[in-house]
Amino acid sequence: MTEYNDPAVRYYQEVFDQCIHYLSIDGVIFGFHQNQLKVLLLRWKGTDAWSLPGGFIRKAESVDVAAQRIMQERTGLDALYLQQFHVFGEAVRYDQEATWRKINLPVDGAKWSERTISLGYYALVEHSKVIPTPDFLTEVCAWWSLDDVPALLFDHNHIIAVALLSLRKDFNDQPLNHLLPDTFTIPELQRLHETILGLSLDGRNFYKKVMASGQLERLSERRAGTPHKAPFLYRFKPSEPTNRLPTLEAKTA
Amino acid sequence: MTEYNDPAVRYYQEVFDQCIHYLSIDGVIFGFHQNQLKVLLLRWKGTDAWSLPGGFIRKAESVDVAAQRIMQERTGLDALYLQQFHVFGEAVRYDQEATWRKINLPVDGAKWSERTISLGYYALVEHSKVIPTPDFLTEVCAWWSLDDVPALLFDHNHIIAVALLSLRKDFNDQPLNHLLPDTFTIPELQRLHETILGLSLDGRNFYKKVMASGQLERLSERRAGTPHKAPFLYRFKPSEPTNRLPTLEAKTA
Lengths: 253, 253
Fold this sequence. Notes:
2 copies of one chain form a homodimer.
Chain A: H1 7-18, E1 23-33, E2 36-44, E3 50-51, E4 54-55, H2 63-75, E5 81-88, H3 96-102, E6 117-124, E7 138-145, H4 156-169, H5 186-197, H6 203-212, E8 216-222, E9 232-236
Parallel strand pairs in A: 1-6
Antiparallel strand pairs in A: 1-2, 1-4, 2-3, 2-7, 5-6, 8-9
């Protein structure tokens, strides 16, 4: 049984012993960079196969704590802004045998779990603060623009699609400042809104609405390195605890 | 070990053998009756302790299918309108030993599961079509107005509170017709909106908005047995697949 010397199989044995069976957590970690909404993906060792970050819940661990632990390990960030968004509980979510072959795991090692129900969480993080960190099953952890995400392992393309729909649905309840650096320009803020909503917004209306919300303050600095007239930098007023912007109606530009 | 003759303990042994460990489903079944939003509750045999309906997921069963099965058994309704709304995953959700004593289960029978993570679903049902049916652990299945719900077993008061918040948040995406009989009056529809939102709405604005949505049609009949001028009956137009009403802004009457 040489395959049981495989560290991955030993890991799954450990999970079997210490974690809740049949349940996993998958994380869609959203970041905003270069005017694009991005997600953090992992490439599995010795393959060109990518997946979302994920993990398992220890037997006496709160589900939310497990999600924090898993996302922290991949980002280096404490106290991430996390949101449960869906339970992926189909009896057969994907072809398990074919998937395990792709990532070079011995297929009979998969027997420990006939199925996994996944609890989907999304995180909103500030791109520049993340230190993408693979786990010991993977060798690359990297940002992918949502438009370029390749065909992923498991049902992870589906999970991302549902996460994005949930983020859109929750849009007006989400503290978007988690996705932004401390200072930003109004066009950058507008692009973030447009990217999440999948819509074009009218620039002048957008400016009026976000300024009318009273939650932003203009700094005296402007964005450096901008070719044309440099736009001013803004930040969320520190006194506003939620940093939420008002409901925005979409207007095609 | 006479306690293992207890049918409840035998049931939990069966659950242990056939279902996914550590996971349960709890259902908040919402109905609308006599201008009140109500939930379906169960009274446990030989006690005055009430809980939500719930159950477990078979090892090869989809989570959504399990939820349908569980809610169908308590309501007699097929193909209920169900919505996942939250995973209750705290490491300690309630005092398990005290709870099991309240419902006369031998406490060491609880050892099969040190904890349960609950997947919360809410259902929107038409009150008049439901046949409330207890399971073999309970002896009464009955509607309770949300305002009168007693202190429940487990963390079920908390689960109802989160379900109601979720229903409010999802309000404009929900097909409310599931909560209504085929025909209804505008004041009844308004009361349903007010009850879910926990707000008073201005009657004239409400009427204008719902009529402007174009989704309702007035019948020639009026509500019988109304003391004053009998209001007309309406129904959702059969041609509208979603039967969703437009976003309503709250106005205190």
